[in-house]
């Protein structure tokens, strides 16, 4: 039986509705899952959605001006409500996985959201510490910290947090079918601190964390300088790269050679969640040229993860108009 996948269409003024509709027209997506969408009706229709494509759960925003894409309170409120509704339905077991199109942090702030973005919201809802990951072909990169100012990193990166994120990363890689996955841990400072000359985080936190994880049976190397860590991972010497901050993972991942689209996913929740690894792209929205490859990849990735999750409780179509 095909997994039932719930998709939130993202900010109605961004590229979310367009890439959602384009992805749903893919034969590969149709073969892999039974899709459902939660989003703004006007935006979805404008993007080409019809009832024949998939069921739609309307979460509408008033007075949207599609000729002026950008962050708005109305768009932020609608995308937030869609995610809250979708999370409730997936957590209740009516769907096997959740795929989220991009939302605007600025619009969510305008709408009074309790968290700035998806992962932070799911952390609040589930009262669990999730892991933010990105996969692109054979590349798998996870984050110890997420959207933090660089100046706050040193105080946030603790022995306990590094070990917790590494354990989650190992479980996530195992869910992809990797047995006893090997992980490369990045250093924080240039040259891995140069013996403490450039910084002490490697000596006081990262090396003890890696040693403790190895003593517990985990295959983890490092901490290595960022360039060496990425070289090791890209050479196939590890199954995953554990980065300490956002750009340490995202910049190399997005420019690495290869045609595969990057998928952003969250591990450690009670449900599988994926999304394309890009934002709302307001500057490209409603010009009919948005690239849906990332959204298609996110849906297919979610369908893959759903195979290892319990099936949905039953037909979800009754919740959709």
Write the layout of secondary structure elements.
Layout (H helix, E strand, L loop, with lengths): L3 E5 L7 H9 L2 H6 L1 E6 L1 H6 L9 E3 L14 H19 L5 E4 L4 H6 L7 H9 L4 E6 L2 E5 L9 H4 L2 H17 L6 E5 L14 H15 L3 E6 L1 H9 L5 E4 L2 H10 L7 E5 L4 E5 L16 H14 L15
Parallel strand pairs: 1-2, 1-4, 2-3, 4-11, 6-9, 7-8, 7-9
Antiparallel strand pairs: 5-6, 5-10, 10-11
Helix pairs in contact: 1-12, 8-9
Structural account:
The chain is of the alpha/beta class. The chain folds into two domains: 1-137 and 259-321, Isopropylmalate Dehydrogenase (3-Layer(aba) Sandwich), CATH 3.40.718.10; 141-257, Isopropylmalate Dehydrogenase (3-Layer(aba) Sandwich). Helices cover 39% and strands 17% of the residues. The chain has twelve helices and eleven strands. It has helices at residues 16-24, 27-32, 41-46, 73-91, 105-110, 118-126, 153-156, 159-175, 201-215, 226-234, 246-255, 293-306; strands at 4-8, 34-39, 56-58, 97-100, 131-136, 139-143, 182-186, 219-224, 240-243, 263-267, 272-276. Strands 3-2-1-4-11-10-5-6-9-7-8 form an eleven-stranded mixed sheet, sandwiched between helices. A hairpin with a 4-residue loop joins strand 10 and strand 11 (272-276). Helix 1 (16-24) crosses helix 12 and helix 8 (159-175) crosses helix 9. The radius of gyration is 20 Å and the shape is globular. Mean pLDDT is 94; it is low at 315-321.
């Amino acid at each position: 039986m095909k997994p039932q996948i719930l998709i939130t269409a993202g900010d109605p003024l961004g590229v979310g509705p367009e890439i959602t509709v384009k992805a749903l027209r893919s034969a590969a997506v149709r073969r892999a899952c039974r899709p459902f969408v939660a989003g703004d009706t006007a935006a979805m229709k404008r993007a080409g959605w019809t009832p024949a494509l998939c069921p739609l759960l309307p979460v509408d925003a008033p007075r949207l001006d599609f000729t002026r894409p950008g962050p708005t309170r109305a768009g932020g409120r609608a995308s937030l409500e869609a995610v809250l509704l979708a999370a409730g339905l997936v957590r209740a077991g009516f769907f096997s996985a959740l795929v989220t199109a991009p939302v605007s942090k600025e619009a969510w702030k305008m709408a009074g959201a309790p968290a700035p973005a998806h992962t932070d919201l799911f952390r609040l809802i589930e009262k669990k510490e999730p892991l933010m990951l990105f996969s692109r072909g054979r590349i798998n990169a996870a984050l110890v910290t997420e959207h933090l100012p660089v100046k706050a990193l040193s105080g946030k990166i603790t022995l306990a947090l590094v070990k917790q994120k590494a354990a989650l990363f190992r479980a996530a890689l195992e869910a992809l079918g990797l047995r006893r996955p090997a992980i490369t841990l990045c250093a924080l400072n240039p040259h891995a601190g140069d013996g403490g000359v450039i910084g002490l985080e490697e000596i006081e936190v990262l090396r003890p964390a890696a040693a403790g994880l190895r003593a517990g049976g985990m295959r983890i190397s490092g901490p290595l300088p960022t360039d060496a860590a990425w070289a090791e991972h890209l050479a196939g010497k590890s199954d995953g790269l554990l980065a300490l901050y956002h750009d340490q993972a995202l910049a190399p991942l997005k420019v690495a050679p290869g045609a595969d689209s990057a998928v952003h996913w969250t591990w450690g929740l009670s449900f599988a969640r994926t999304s394309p690894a890009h934002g709302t792209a307001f500057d490209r929205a409603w010009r009919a040229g948005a690239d849906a490859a990332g959204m298609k990849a996110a849906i297919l990735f979610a369908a893959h993860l759903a195979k290892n999750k319990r099936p949905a409780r039953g037909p979800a179509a009754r919740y959709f108009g």
